[in-house]
Design brief:
Layout: E1 7-10, E2 18-19, E3 26-27, E4 29-33, E5 37-44, E6 47-53, E7 56-59, E8 68-70, H1 84-94, H2 99-106, H3 110-119, E9 134-142, E10 150-158, E11 161-168, H4 173-182, H5 185-188, E12 191-196, H6 200-210, E13 215-218, H7 220-245, H8 248-252, H9 257-262, H10 270-282, H11 284-301, H12 306-322, H13 329-337, H14 339-343, H15 354-368, H16 375-393
Parallel strand pairs: 1-6, 9-12, 12-13
Antiparallel strand pairs: 2-3, 4-7, 5-6, 7-8, 9-10, 10-11
The structure holds zinc ion.
């Protein structure tokens, strides 16, 4: 809405012709002006700018009833009260920001900003633009913290680029299968392998849609999440026990154990090392679990073949059993069901890391736009934040 201090620029069309809406021919017979329209444009010196124009009307003398047509303005989509340049400006502001914030700064309504995003490139289905997939990624994220209602992120990873292909409302096999079937055959043929989380539904959907022979790889990142969770469970349990059994002063010595325990062992400070040593003195099981966790990480660092790797897994599993630890039970179960897919990592290491980058970006979006529970909006925001700077800033 125009307020005091805004700039209003009155325009006059210099075009001498239009296109007949009926026959599509160029028409030059001038038939007067349309009503004034007001169109928001790029700001000048921090002020809002509005363009006012009366579009010209032309008459077709060749069509029946000699209809008139209003001229189209190339810099504005018909019916919109803002220019294309202004829409791109708003989208640039929206990158790494929230709709609320942009509304405030640009003096716009939420519906306006959302509509601009929907009608832009970022509102379109990514499958309509993709021609090469490479590695197809299937991952899940929980939209609300602590909730089990996952949405599935489908991505393409090729030559160091991760691109969003779709956001699915749930992780049911049928939902994933239905989406994979939408990928055009020519694009399907460009899929080298499928990188997934450890979940049967993904595995089965991928095989059904892409053929039994498709190589499915479990991302190292997901494997690490799983065994680290196991190690953390015994840390929690032992800390609880020690809190009861130790004197208040002795227990204080363990302050910071959580972070020291989770940290990369090569990056521990002296203090953190001391905390760990103290804790291990009280709990030999915790020490064993810690060492086995690090041993599993080391396996992934080795330059193994797939066969070497499966052997290393077996050896590791035996050690866990020999040590009588039950914190890795759930991980071992997963490891056994997905052994081949996990070991496929050693065939093609380039997969790892991609998914983590995209997931982190999505986490940031979730935190910033705490209201995004709508998967269509989420897809648009991910596309804008991942591709926006490239598509909206290079001219
Ligand atoms: Zn005509």
């Amino acid at each position: 809405m125009i307020t005091k201090g805004d700039y209003i620029i009155q325009l006059r069309s210099t075009k001498k012709s239009g296109i007949c809406r009926k026959c599509g021919k160029v028409i030059r017979h001038f038939k007067g002006y349309d009503e004034w329209i007001t169109i928001r444009h790029l700001p000048i010196l921090g002020r809002e700018v509005y363009l006012k124009i009366r579009p010209r009307r032309y008459q077709c003398l060749e069509c029946d009833n000699e209809p008139t047509t209003t001229e189209r303005l190339s810099w504005r989509d018909s019916g919109k009260n803002y220019t294309k340049a202004y829409r791109d400006h708003v989208l640039r502001c929206l990158i790494n920001s929230s709709v609320e914030d942009v509304c405030l700064k640009e003096n716009l309504g939420e519906k306006h900003v959302e509509a601009m995003l929907s009608e832009s490139y970022f509102g379109q289905n990514p499958l309509d633009h993709i021609s090469y997939i490479g590695t197809l990624g299937l991952d899940e994220i929980a939209l609300k913290k602590g909730h089990r209602d996952f949405v599935v992120i489908v991505s393409s990873r090729f030559e160091g680029r991760t691109q969003l292909l779709g956001v699915l409302p749930d992780r049911k096999k049928e939902t994933v299968l239905e989406f994979l079937k939408l990928i055009p055959d020519t694009v399907k043929n460009t899929i080298n392998d499928v990188a997934t989380d450890m979940y049967e539904g993904y595995l089965n959907a991928a095989k059904e849609a892409l053929g039994e022979s498709v190589e499915v790889v479990v991302d190292r990142f997901h494997v690490a999440q799983s065994y680290r969770k196991g190690a953390d469970s015994i840390r929690k349990k032992e800390q609880k026990r020690l809190k009861k059994e130790l004197s208040e002063n002795d227990y204080k010595e363990l302050k910071g154990l959580l972070w020291a325990f989770r940290k990369n062992p090569n990056k521990l400070t002296e203090t953190e090392n001391d905390i760990l040593e103290t804790a291990f003195g009280y709990s030999p099981d915790l020490k064993k679990a810690y060492e086995l966790r690090n041993a599993m990480t080391d396996i992934f660092e080795e330059d193994y073949t797939k066969q070497d790797d499966i052997a290393a897994f077996k050896k590791w599993e035996k050690k866990v059993i020999k040590n009588g630890l039950d914190c890795y039970d759930s991980f071992i179960k997963t490891l056994n069901s997905f052994q081949s897919q996990i070991a496929n990592y050693f065939n093609n290491r380039s997969n790892s890391g991609f998914v983590e980058g995209l997931n982190n970006k999505i986490k940031v979006i979730k935190r910033r736009c705490y209201g995004i529970f709508n998967i269509k909006h989420l897809r648009q925001r991910i596309l804008l934040d991942t591709l926006g700077s490239e598509l909206l800033f290079t001219k």
